[in-house]
Design brief:
Number of strands: 14
Cofactor: [8Fe-7S] cluster
EC number: 1.18.6.1
CATH architecture of the domain at 60-186: 3-Layer(aba) Sandwich
Family: Belongs to the NifD/NifK/NifE/NifN family.
Protein name: Nitrogenase protein alpha chain
Bound molecules: FE-MO-S cluster, 3-hydroxy-3-carboxy-adipic acid
Keywords: ATP-binding, Iron, Iron-sulfur, Metal-binding, Nitrogen fixation, Nucleotide-binding, Oxidoreductase
Strand content: 5-15%
CATH topology of the domain at 60-186: Rossmann fold
């Protein structure tokens, strides 16, 4: 156990690169670095995976349909393509939802697909798609229907946008129908799919409904929270307790109507910056709603997020209420942490997940006294590693935002009214100058320790090497890694869908996480992976005889 900490993490790079062909090794070298938070090294990210390497990444369709639109409950999401694409993105992510009454639509349990066949590839699939839309309307009468393109759709030239327009007309504009050009092969990962989804949300839903009855003086959007394992339910509980209205969540436990009213909020909070920053920027540019980054992963992070909300609204009553809730919740959380700590303190972890959790979950591990030896994203961009620093400004430059296709109706006056230098100053006073400010955020490298290995788009081979050399007490990744890692005798916690656990967000979530990780790192079952006669000590013992 003890000797793993003596292992020098700087030797990993040479050890792993040595086995690659020279050209491949040269390319991978740029994506493997030893961290230095004070002098951040440059990491290569968001580039095409080298063909032949086994990556853990997904595709553009997965990022658009599965990730961003998947968790919303009252849109019929039709996958135009072969059935496998629809099936793959059907609930494996464990995004949950709760209707307010039995009358409310909930299509999440359904998997809608045109189930394209060879003949559709040869003769075109638009007619089949139209038929599917008619059928969906007849059976479910939804408010909105979304069409998602898979790889063959782009290859054969079916035009999902034309079909959407035609069907909207056929239904006399009674159903909002829109398409996504999110063919799997676009871009280099899920990330392009997020962007496509963000643009279409903005174009087709956000801003459609001004008719709101505010439930509170303090109204916020929460972006980049997808209600995996019930995370959004726990965050909703905290907001409700504090008297802050959640106008919309993009897109955990969301509805068409919440998207349509998002532009009426006072403030936008961004959890997973990678997947939804585009909507945050558009809400700011067009509707003057300021945004800042928060995280509800970790008890301290959750407290900090709520304090940021308090500082922004700068209302004494709200601040008092929020502080009361934090004190109440942290007391229970701390007791749970103390129970877990003896089992977790001093252990080591590795985290390789998507585009934000490899960063966010370090907070929870820190609370457990667990050191992260190595971490990285599948598809993060450089800003997700390095963070972003912007000089606070109230200038809005719509042209620099690269959102062609979209008509920007910028509401500079509203933004200025909300995000005055005075508000910024108040936030700075309340949170301290070093805290992440409006529109700034820290990345993975600001958090992970000096010398720790940061690896982008980790390959399967590199993953095996990491385990072989450093034997972490727990490895966090997804389903593609899970059984390979566990067969090597290391417990793997899925940080995508939480296996069967969660929620892990907020205060309740932190306690669930403490408990689950304490169990995983202290179980002896993984030592039984090898049959007794295969274990080294047994073999050694036989020599003695
Ligand atoms: Fe954002 Fe996500 Fe993630 Fe992501 Fe994903 Fe996910 Fe993820 Mo899987 S939106 S980047 S594309 S936090 S599905 S809920 S777990 S890879 S780290
Ligand atoms: C996706 C979804 C995924 C996959 C997780 C995994 C998720 O990228 O298509 O590989 O286990 O969270 O469900 O990221």
């Amino acid at each position: 156990m003890g000797d793993k900490k003596k292992v020098d993490l700087t030797t990993f790079k040479d050890a792993v690169l040595d086995k690659y062909p020279k050209k491949v090794g040269k390319k991978r070298a740029k994506a493997i670095i030893n961290n230095d938070p004070d002098n951040m090294p440059v990491i290569q990210a968001n580039i095409r995976t080298i063909p032949g390497i086994i990556t853990q990444r997904g595709c553009t369709y997965a990022g658009c349909k599965g990730v961003v639109l998947g968790p919303t409950r009252d849109i019929v999401n039709i996958t135009h393509g072969p059935i496998g694409c629809g099936f793959y993105s059907w609930l494996t992510r464990r995004n949950q939802t709760k209707t307010e009454s039995d009358q409310d639509a909930n299509f999440i349990p359904y998997c809608f697909s045109t189930d394209m066949q060879d003949s559709n590839i040869v003769f075109g699939g638009e007619e089949k798609l139209k038929q599917a839309i008619r059928e969906a309307r007849e059976l479910f009468n939804p408010k909105a229907i979304a069409i998602f393109s898979t790889c063959p759709v782009g290859l054969i030239g079916d035009d999902v946008h034309r079909v959407a327009r035609q069907m909207k007309e056929e239904f006399n504009n009674e159903v909002n129908i829109f398409g996504f050009s999110c063919e799997g092969y676009r871009g280099v990962s899920q990330s392009a799919g997020h962007h496509i989804a963000n643009n279409q949300l903005y174009k087709n839903l956000i801003g459609n409904d001004d008719n709101v009855t505010p439930k509170s003086k303090f109204r916020v959007n929460l972006l980049g929270e997808y209600n995996i394992g019930g995370d959004a339910f726990e965050i909703e509980r905290i907001f409700e307790k504090c008297g802050v209205e959640l106008v919309s969540t993009f897109s955990g436990n969301s509805t068409v109507s919440s998207f349509e009213q998002a532009h009426t909020a006072d403030l936008t909070l961004v959890m997973c910056h990678r997947s939804i920053n585009y909507v945050a920027e558009m809400l700011e540019t067009s509707f003057g709603i300021p945004w800042f980054k928060v995280s509800f992963i970790g008890a301290q992070a959750s407290a900090k997020a709520m304090r940021k909300v308090a500082a922004y609204f700068n209302d004494p009553e709200l601040t008092e209420r929020i502080e009361k809730v934090i004190a109440e919740e942290l007391k229970i959380v701390e007791a749970a942490r103390q129970v877990a700590l003896p089992k977790t303190n001093g252990k080591t972890a590795m985290l390789f997940v998507g585009g934000s959790r490899a960063h966010h979950y370090q907070d929870l591990f820190e609370e457990l006294g667990v050191t992260t030896l190595s971490a990285g994203y599948e598809f993060g961009h450089r800003d997700d590693y390095e963070g972003r620093r912007v000089i606070p400004t109230i200038q809005i430059d719509a042209d620099s935002r690269n959102i062609e296709e979209i008509t920007v109706t910028k509401d500079e006056a509203r933004f200025k009214e909300r995000m005055t230098p005075d508000v910024l100053k108040k936030m700075e006073d309340a949170l301290g100058k070093d805290e992440v400010e409006y529109n700034d955020y820290n990345g993975l490298m600001a958090q992970i320790g000096k010398g720790a290995l940061v690896i982008d788009d980790l390959s399967h081979y590199e993953m095996e090497k990491l385990i072989e050399l450093y034997h972490p007490d727990i490895f966090c990744a997804g389903i593609k890694e899970k059984y390979a890692v566990q067969k090597m005798g290391i417990p793997l916690k899925q940080l995508h869908n939480y296996d069967s656990g969660g929620p892990y967000a907020g205060f309740q979530g932190a306690m669930n996480f403490y408990n689950d990780i304490a169990m995983m790192v202290s179980t002896s079952i993984f030592k039984e992976i090898k049959a007794p006669w295969e274990r080294e000590e047994v073999v050694e013992a036989s020599y003695v005889y």
